[in-house]
Design brief:
By secondary structure, the protein is α+β, with helices and mostly antiparallel strands. The strands form 2 sheets. Strands 1-2-3-6 form a 4-stranded antiparallel beta sheet. Strands 5-4-7-8 form a 4-stranded antiparallel beta sheet, with no helix packed on it. A hairpin with a 5-residue loop joins strand 1 and strand 2.
């Protein structure tokens, strides 16, 4: 192995998103058998990817099935594919770090936006705008997850929600993920905060399980807070924090 064994601990996101090559995936599979923290982190990244997909998924138009079935008879069958021999990858080594951000972004975008692209033309400008927004969100989240200096911290909110923050100094961004987050109730929302030496600055809203890119500058923040606020959010916390979790060092 050309890389230090510690490098394996940085590949949980790439593994969960399917961005590793076959040989690299087999190598990381073997690592997972001996590393409980990587098993947990890979499972959490996989759950995050599923929540991202669910957040931007759209049901297909009701007439789609009938249109596809009607068009089948007029579609010419393709000839059988003949596999083209490919060069065998060089042995040894984990994922090349310089290629990881692009691979992750492509993997996440393909998984989450593929269904949107299929019927985008049928839904006009509204769907196109949604797709662009989703792509920007996924690209930003992927850049943080793929950053070589990405660091992770886990926590639990007072209402039982499981939380994860992934931060990158190089990207100067942080990503927040919540699981088992109870419904906030009518007229309420959960609001995220960045704690700057005791001053809580708004960092975004989250209403249900999912992943959000924290707004604001995490560079000089010490912790991430979570409170329950009126719908639309507040300029400063109006309730006791459900969570005040130090940013990963």
């Amino acid at each position: 192995m050309k890389h230090h064994s510690a490098d394996a601990h940085t590949l949980a996101a790439a593994y969960a998103l399917g961005a590793l090559e076959d040989a690299e995936r087999e190598e990381f599979d073997a690592h997972l058998h001996a590393c409980e923290s990587c098993r947990q982190e890979a499972a959490e990244f996989a759950a995050t990817t599923a929540r991202l997909a669910a957040a931007v998924s759209q049901p297909p138009p009701a007439a789609s099935k009938a249109q596809v079935m009607a068009a089948i008879d007029g579609v010419r069958q393709l000839p059988p594919r003949i596999p083209v021999p490919t060069a065998k990858p060089a042995p040894g080594g984990m994922l090349r770090r310089k290629a990881l951000p692009l691979a992750l972004a492509a993997s996440v975008a393909a998984a989450v936006l593929g269904g949107v692209a299929v019927w985008q033309a049928q839904n006009g400008q509204d769907l196109e705008q949604q797709a662009r927004q989703a792509r920007r969100q996924l690209d930003a989240v992927s850049a943080v997850l793929a950053a070589p200096d990405a660091r992770t911290v886990h926590g639990r909110a007072a209402n039982g929600a499981l939380t994860t923050v992934v931060a990158s100094d190089r990207q100067n961004k942080a990503v927040f993920t919540a699981a088992n987050l109870p419904a906030p109730g009518a007229g309420r929302t959960y609001q995220l905060w960045l704690d700057h030496d005791g001053t809580m600055r708004p960092a975004g809203l989250i209403d249900h399980d999912g992943t959000v890119l924290l707004a604001g500058d995490p560079a000089d923040a010490g912790a991430v807070g979570l409170t329950l606020e009126p719908a639309g959010g507040s300029s400063r916390p109006t309730t006791d924090p459900l969570l005040l979790m130090p940013l990963p060092a």
